[in-house]
Amino acid sequence: MFLRFTVENHGSFSQPAELSFVATSRSDSPDWRMPSRHVKHGVLPALGLWGANASGKSQLLGALGLLRSAVRYSQTRWEPNAGVPWNPFRMRYDGPPTVMELELLLDDVRHAFGFAITAAGFSEEWLYRWSGTRRQVIYHRDEMSPDDETFYFGPSFKGQRKAIEDITRANSLFLSAGAQQNHELLLPIYDKIAGAIRIERGLTASPPVFAGQDPIVGPRLRPRLVKLLQLADLGVIDATVERAQARPGSHDEVRFRLVHRGEEGQTWTLDPMLESRGTHALIARCHDILYALDEGQMLVIDELDTSLHPDLCAALVDLFTDSASNPSGAQLLFTTHDRGLLSRLRADEVALIDKASDGRSTIRAASDFRGIRKRDDLRTAHQRGRIGGIPVLGNLAEAMVED
What we know:
By secondary structure, the protein is α+β, with helices and mostly antiparallel strands. It has two domains: about 1-200 and about 300-403, Rossmann fold (3-Layer(aba) Sandwich); about 205-295, no CATH class. About 25% of the residues lie in helices and about 30% in strands. The protein is built from eight helices and 19 strands. α3 (about 175-180) packs across α4. It is globular. The mean pLDDT is about 90.
């Protein structure tokens, strides 16, 4: 499970911003939270971000995606002399570094991994874990160390060090390099970040295409997909797999042909290209959701409500906040403009993002606001602009009047 993600000096977030899955003490529903000895009131299975267009919602998700990408690819795919993908506030490359940190639980042991990044590469990197309430340094990397001792290793760090240091470049992470060497201590942390954070596959105007070996077309997930489609009021009773036209450089790709209910028990199928955009979106979303629920991953979705009915979005969120449908402890992090979803989440599962006139974005949990006692209060407060996260619109009709 993931506890917190913090980022500073990225995109429009010049000051530290935090995404927190740590539950508060307030009584609220849905009341299911995942237990951990490290957090008194449990870990949240979902976190939704509300904000106006261009407020910074996507940039926060992008920051988390950058951390995951750096862990997963910096040692293996980033070109040695190509620099790093750095996006500081107002693109000030002469300013301070971007700092990111992710707190996670691995076998219910709390860990924190983070780094500082500049145009030159990674200036700092660290990995901590907790023994009870005491924080232990596993390693700390400081490229600006005055005594030329770039790495400090705590007593708990066992195994090879020098060989990993030697292959760690300025634009690669020590964690990533250590994972490539199958380091016993670093590999589980690498796997957790690189493998348990699932970024949405994205929506297109055409039917989603899946690899032939994708679990969604296999015996474990495909029946669940069919059941979800049946329950979504699409008139679908089954889904068959058909081979898709191969794209250059690809092979063994398939897509779903849906079987629809006809008159007097008859059935009919429609070419996938003729299915609605909403149906395409639902299949793509169900793919990511089913996989995340099955593997206990954190699923990251930007604009969850794209091309989906509000009631259907609510039902998809409910899959994460109900222990019966989420036995593996998966987590959902999403952005949306759908105010109706505020009534499906606890106040501490809702965060509001606003951008000031100087271009700086801030984030605040809905549970921090006074007077929010229940979910109806939250929805009303958001609608009336009391808690932010909405655009402040001018009179758009005036733009159509000629001077």
